[in-house]
């Protein structure tokens, strides 16, 4: 009995030990589960923080870069133009450039800071100083779009308008019809170019005439060019220039079956204008166009 009891007791103890071991294992499993479930939310929190920082940096970085470009462009512009009073510069010496290389550097920086409203004001001064007044005015107008109530920006824009007005009064006007005699005309009916001569000119593909079209309906001097014809002028551009002209179709052709005409302008072999004038648009009369030739000076 004693041996049996001893065996039984031993078995019971073993069973108790096994049971206790199972309980300990369960406790450890619970602890492990608790630890794992605690680590996972912490990882998510850190991932969220890192992601938020990345998004914030992505949103802020362009502004930081723009601010740097604006500051660098402003310094270069002061070096190029000097630290004169703003309004004095506009009204007295807007074309005075002390350091041309610094001016180019300023323009390069400011063009990359186009999200900064003040950059457009500085670009306006820079381009005017470079001689491109129309581009400068455009930049100042953009600055006003960003900040419509900026009084200094409006003063600068008004000064730029006055500068344009003075330059227009001093500008040299060239009527291309008046210098047609010095032009070379190429047409499908001639091989190569032919110098235009007013006496005895009988080329039906290209000739000076006059059209009466809307909106004025007055006789407007016109150079008629048949499809495939070209007129070439030699004009010296000594200052930023603008080519202004009107496109139209011969009134007699408006009721013909056709799709209109294509107009092109070249400067030293480089095409600077291309537009197809459809018949329905041509019925409205003269289509006024303007081509900036400043970069070809």
Commentary on this structure:
This protein has 297 residues and is α+β, with helices and mostly antiparallel strands. It folds into 2 domains: 73-170, Serine Threonine Protein Phosphatase 5, Tetratricopeptide repeat; 180-296, no CATH class. Helix content is 51%, strand content 16%. It has 7 helices and 9 strands. Strand 3 and strand 4 form a beta hairpin. The termini are far apart. Residues 1-38 and 55-59 have low confidence and may be disordered.
Write the layout of secondary structure elements.
Layout (H helix, E strand, L loop, with lengths): L1 H80 L4 H6 L8 H12 L5 H14 L2 H14 L4 H20 L13 E3 L7 E2 L10 E7 L6 E7 L4 E3 L9 E6 L13 E7 L2 E8 L1 H4 L4 E6 L5
Antiparallel strand pairs: 1-2, 1-5, 3-4, 6-9, 7-8
Helix pairs in contact: 1-3, 1-4, 3-4, 4-5, 5-6
- Low-pLDDT segments, ≥5 res: 1-38, 55-59
The percent range for strand residues is 15-25%
Query: Structural class from helices and strands?
Result: alpha+beta
**Rg over alpha carbons:** 39 Å
Helix percentage range: 40-55%
Mean pLDDT: 80
How many helices? Answer: 7
Number of domains: 2
Main β-sheet: number of strands, strand sense, barrel status? 3 strands, antiparallel
Strand order of the largest sheet: 2-1-5
Cα end-to-end separation: 124 Å
Gross morphology is elongated
Order of helices and strands: HHHHHHEEEEEEEEHE
């Amino acid at each position: 009995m004693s041996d049996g009891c001893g065996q039984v007791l031993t078995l019971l103890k073993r069973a108790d030990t096994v049971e206790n071991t199972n309980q300990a294992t369960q406790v450890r499993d619970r602890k492990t589960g608790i630890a794992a479930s605690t680590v996972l939310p912490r990882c998510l929190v850190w991932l969220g923080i890192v992601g938020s920082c990345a998004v914030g940096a992505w949103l802020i970085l362009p502004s930081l870069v723009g601010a740097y470009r604006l500051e660098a462009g402003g310094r270069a512009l002061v070096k190029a133009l000097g630290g004169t009073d703003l309004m004095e510069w506009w009204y007295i010496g807007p074309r005075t450039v002390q350091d041309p290389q610094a001016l180019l550097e300023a323009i390069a920086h400011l063009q990359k800071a186009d999200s900064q409203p003040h950059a457009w004001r500085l670009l306006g001064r820079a381009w005017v100083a470079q001689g491109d007044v129309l581009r400068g005015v455009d930049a100042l107008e953009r600055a006003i779009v960003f900040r419509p109530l900026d009084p200094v920006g409006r003063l600068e824009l008004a000064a730029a308008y006055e500068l344009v007005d003075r330059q227009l009064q001093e500008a040299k006007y060239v009527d291309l019809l008046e210098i047609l005699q010095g032009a070379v005309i190429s047409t499908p009916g001639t091989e190569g170019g032919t110098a235009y001569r007013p006496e005895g000119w009988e080329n039906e593909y290209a000739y000076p005439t006059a059209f009466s079209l809307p909106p004025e309906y007055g006789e407007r001097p016109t150079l008629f060019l048949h499809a495939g014809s070209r007129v070439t002028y030699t004009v010296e551009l000594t200052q930023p220039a603008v080519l202004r002209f009107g496109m139209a179709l011969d009134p007699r052709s408006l009721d013909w079956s056709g799709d209109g005409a294509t107009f092109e302008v070249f400067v030293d072999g480089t095409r600077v204008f291309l537009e197809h004038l459809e018949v329905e648009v041509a019925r409205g009369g003269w289509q006024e166009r303007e081509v900036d030739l400043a970069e070809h000076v």
